[in-house]
């Protein structure tokens, strides 16, 4: 059961169906890319996985190594081993990056157990070194006044420190500049392992030049309509999404 498995997920918002019997399985050790035209439900999927409350889950399951995480609170989902990175991370003035990550780590410990500060900083600095980050960075308030690249750096550091089993990154329509693109892709590539699975959501093929996916899925109208290898992403880049729409319109 070393998989993140989304099974027959049906999700609506204000009575309108968005995800339609959506299924996807990501084994540990693999990077899956989810692509598709705007408005197809990619971000909805990521938000539902994060425990966002605006959406109505009609049916389905999201199994993280066999444990259903649907309906759990965001912190429980994180605790279960899922990390979700979003295009617009929250700003928390007055809370340093170091303390924010420390609180997230503390929340995972059993009642009454405290983080060893010396060991925590040792690990934090070691991770920062391996990600080539300046140590001064951790003293800054979370995302406050950050450039796009700094936000991404902060996100990757959080991801590295939380050591999740699965990472979902919604970079859709983000227009990441080249600096941010490099930071995200180096961070993800650095964290690729047999022990971890990734779902990289992107509207554009560009990110996938840097994070080479094992599997590419094309989503349309709330479900996956095509899966293939990295060449599928290149095909989409040259042909666009119209053929997916046409094919789909013909089928339904
Ligand atoms: P994508 O990320 O693929 O561009 P989204 O998941 O953002 O697609 O949106 C899918 C559909 O759901 C769109 O039609 C969008 O308008 C609708 N939708 C998403 N979130 C909301 C919301 N909070 N309220 C109303 N409609 C929404
Ligand atoms: Mg969109
Ligand atoms: Mg989106």
TrEMBL record:
<dbReference type="InterPro" id="IPR003439">
    <property type="entry name" value="ABC_transporter-like_ATP-bd"/>
</dbReference>
<dbReference type="InterPro" id="IPR010230">
    <property type="entry name" value="FeS-cluster_ATPase_SufC"/>
</dbReference>
<keyword id="KW-0547">Nucleotide-binding</keyword>
<protein>
    <submittedName>
        <fullName>Fe-S cluster assembly ATPase SufC</fullName>
    </submittedName>
</protein>
<comment type="similarity">
    <text>Belongs to the ABC transporter superfamily. Ycf16 family.</text>
</comment>
<feature type="domain" description="ABC transporter">
    <location>
        <begin position="4"/>
        <end position="246"/>
    </location>
</feature>
<dbReference type="InterPro" id="IPR003593">
    <property type="entry name" value="AAA+_ATPase"/>
</dbReference>
<dbReference type="Pfam" id="PF00005">
    <property type="entry name" value="ABC_tran"/>
</dbReference>
<keyword id="KW-0067">ATP-binding</keyword>
<dbReference type="InterPro" id="IPR027417">
    <property type="entry name" value="P-loop_NTPase"/>
</dbReference>
